[in-house]
Structures are given as C-alpha cells and as structure tokens.
Specification:
Strand content: 25-35%
Bound molecules: zinc ion
Oligomer: single chain
Largest sheet: 6 strands, mixed
Helix content: 25-40%
Order of helices and strands: HEEHHEHEEEHEEH
Structural class: alpha/beta
CATH architecture of the domain at 41-163: 3-Layer(aba) Sandwich
Number of strands: 8
Number of helices: 6
CATH class of the domain at 41-163: Alpha Beta
Distance between the termini: 32 Å
Low-confidence stretches: none
Length: 186
C-alpha cells in the first residue's frame, strides 16, 4: 500500500528531489508537488479509492475537504463511497461551508485533504463540521509529512507517510553544496 502511493507520486512527477525553498522559509531536499498528481484523474482516483476503502465500513455520509486540493479529494472519495462531497473555504481565521453547502445534525463526516503538514486546514474543516453539529468519523490524506504525529482526536489514514528533512538556510546541506535554490510553483 505505502509503496504504491509513493510510486504514484513519483510516476506523476510530483515527488521532486533537489533544493527547495518552502513557504516557511526553510529549505528542503524533497518537495511534493501535489498538483502534479491531481492533474491526472486516474492517479487521483487510485489514491482516493485507498482512502474510501479504509473508511468504507464507517457509515460516512459526507466527505469534506479544504480548498483548493481538498475539493478534488473530497469529490473523488465521495464518488467512491457514493455519498456527498463538499468543501470549506477560507473565511477570516477559519473556514466555512458556503455555496449553499450544509450538514444535518449528527451527519457522519469524513474530512480529507491532499498533503498533511501542520494539519491547520484539516483542523479548520473539523471545527466547521462541529459548528454544524456534524460528527467527524476520521481524517484521510494522500500523504502525511508529519509521520502520523498529528492528533485530530479521530482515526487518521494516509495513503503514504514520508519523513522530509527541512533545514534553516544556514544549516542546509544543499546550500553548502552550492545547488541552486528553487521556489516550488514559481
Ligand atoms: Zn538550502
């Protein structure tokens, strides 16, 4: 399972190796360019099926994700489970369901996202689900950069886990080796 998902990222050209400047200002030798995977419906579908399969016996009624990548994941996992898929958009300090999306009290919600790093977006979606009175059944992501250390208080499933080292510029081995620094997505 783990190998398969990582292989999909590599085949899609989403598993980039080199010298990257992260939004945090830290440098990293690996960067996961999630949209390189998400542009291929068949790869996205394969990964989302892994998430759907993991939660298929949990009575999920709605799948919800944060914008932007989470829209695609929520749609595809929901399609696979035969349930509704919705997304939460940035709204002030948190996220909210707009566009007429709503939840019924006690509706069983699976929260999904693409790459789990700090888990901030996922926590915002969970808060919005709870605001509506929904019940969060679990969290599913394509890749977990936090090695399963994130605790959302519900079961977490990741298609694969990856331990990526990040460095302050002063301590960065790629800087010392003189490799050109790349800003991903730039
Ligand atoms: Zn560097």
């Amino acid at each position: 399972m783990t190998k398969t998902a990582e292989l999909i990222f590599r085949e899609a050209g989403a598993f980039l190796e080199g010298h990257f400047l992260l939004t945090s200002g830290l440098h990293s030798p690996i960067y996961l360019e999630k949209f390189h995977v998400l542009q291929y419906p068949h790869y996205t579908a394969q990964l989302c099926r892994m998430i759907a399969r993991h939660f298929q016996k949990d009575g999920v009624q709605v799948v919800a994700g944060p914008t932007v990548g989470g829209i695609l994941i929520a749609f595809e996992v929901a399609r696979s489970l035969g349930v509704r898929g919705i997304f939460a958009e940035r709204d002030g300090d948190g996220r909210s369901f707009r566009r007429g999306f709503s939840l019924l009290p006690k509706e069983r919600v699976l929260v999904v996202d693409d790459i789990l790093t700090t888990g901030g977006s996922i926590r915002e979606v969970i808060a919005e689900v709870k605001r509506w009175g929904g019940e969060v059944m679990g969290v599913g992501v394509l890749a977990d950069r936090a090695k399963g250390k994130s605790d959302f208080g519900v079961p977490l499933y990741s298609c694969f886990n990856i331990d990526i080292n990040t460095y302050e510029p002063a301590d960065c081995p790629q800087c010392k080796a003189g490799l050109p620094l790349v800003r991903p997505g730039g």
